[in-house]
Specification:
Number of helices: 2
Distance between the termini: 44 Å
Shape: globular
Order of helices and strands: HEEEEEEEHEEEEEEE
Largest sheet: 12 strands, antiparallel, barrel
Length: about 250
C-alpha cells in the first residue's frame, strides 16, 4: 500500500509542477462542462488530514473522453488511500449537457446536465450506481455561474455508516442517499476564480468545499478545503490537478 500511495503522490506532484488541465467537475460535484471532442481529460484529487489521529490521505481519480454533442464518457477509481480502503470503487458512465434556454439580459449559459455511473466495489465485488442531474446558469452582470441539482447513489459512491455494537465490534451499514448538490463559480480575473460546491446529507461526500482556481492559459490548478457536514467525517486540505490529452490530430 505504501508503494501505491507513493506512486499516486508522485503523479499528483507531476501535475502540480506542470499545471496540467482538463476539468469536468467544479470541485466535488459534476460541472456543466464536458471534455472537448476527441480529448481525454484526466483529473486527480487528493485529500490530506494530518492533524486528527495521524496522516490520512484519500484520492479520487477520473478520466473523461469527449465524444461530441456535449457528451463525455467517464471512468473512475475512487477511495484509494493510505488506510487500506474498505470502499475502493471503479466506475464507468457518461454525462450530457443540454442548452435549455437562450441567453437573455440577466442570464447566460443556461444548461441542464444529466449523468450516470455504473459502479463496482473491489472489496465486496458488488455493483452499484450513481445518477445525477442539475441546472446551471451564469449571472450576466457578475459572470457568476450557479448550479443546483440532485443525485442518488449506492454505497460504492457514498460509503458506509459505522455502527458500534454492544460487544465492541463495528458494523458497516451501506448508505444509499438522495442528496442535494449546489455549486458556484466566480471569476475574479481572467486567470483566478473562487469556486465551491456542497453535497447535502450524512455520507462520505457530504461536505462544503470552497476553493481557489488558477488558470494559466488552458492549465488549471485548484486548492480547496473540505468542511464536512455534521457527523460525516474530518476536515481536509484538497488539491485537484487536471490535464487534457488530444487523441486526434488537430487540423
Amino acid at each position: 500500500m505504501k508503494d501505491i500511495v507513493g506512486r499516486f503522490s508522485c503523479v499528483c506532484l507531476v501535475c502540480i509542477a506542470t499545471l496540467l488541465n482538463g476539468q469536468s467537475l467544479i470541485v466535488g460535484i459534476p460541472s456543466a462542462d464536458v471534455a472537448e471532442p476527441h480529448h481525454l481529460e484526466i483529473t486527480h484529487e487528493s485529500q490530506w488530514n494530518s492533524w486528527e489521529n495521524g496522516l490520512k490521505w484519500n484520492s479520487f481519480n477520473f478520466a473523461c473522453y469527449g465524444i461530441g454533442h456535449n457528451t463525455e464518457l467517464t471512468a473512475a477509481l475512487n477511495n484509494l488511500n493510505n488506510d487500506g480502503s474498505s470502499n475502493l470503487a471503479l466506475g464507468l458512465g457518461a454525462k450530457k449537457v443540454f442548452s435549455i434556454v437562450k441567453d437573455n439580459k440577466a442570464l447566460s449559459e443556461i444548461k441542464l446536465t444529466v449523468g450516470s455511473n455504473l459502479l463496482y466495489s473491489v472489496q465486496k465485488q458488488e455493483p452499484g450506481i450513481w445518477v445525477y442531474s442539475h441546472a446551471s446558469a451564469r449571472i450576466v452582470a457578475t459572470r457568476t455561474r450557479l448550479t443546483i441539482g440532485g443525485s442518488y447513489g449506492t454505497y460504492q459512491a457514498f460509503g458506509f455508516r459505522r455502527l458500534l455494537l454492544s460487544n465492541g465490534d463495528v458494523s458497516l451499514e451501506p448508505r444509499s442517499p438522495t442528496a442535494l448538490m449546489l455549486g458556484f463559480e466566480q471569476p475574479l480575473s481572467h486567470r483566478v476564480s473562487i469556486i465551491g460546491d456542497w453535497f447535502s446529507g450524512i455520507h462520505d461526500l457530504a461536505a462544503f468545499i470552497p476553493a481557489l482556481q488558477i488558470d494559466v492559459k488552458k492549465h488549471v490548478l485548484i486548492f480547496g478545503y473540505k468542511f464536512p457536514n455534521p457527523q460525516t467525517g474530518s476536515q481536509a486540505l484538497i488539491l485537484e490537478c487536471m490535464f487534457s490529452i488530444p487523441m486526434k490530430k488537430q487540423h
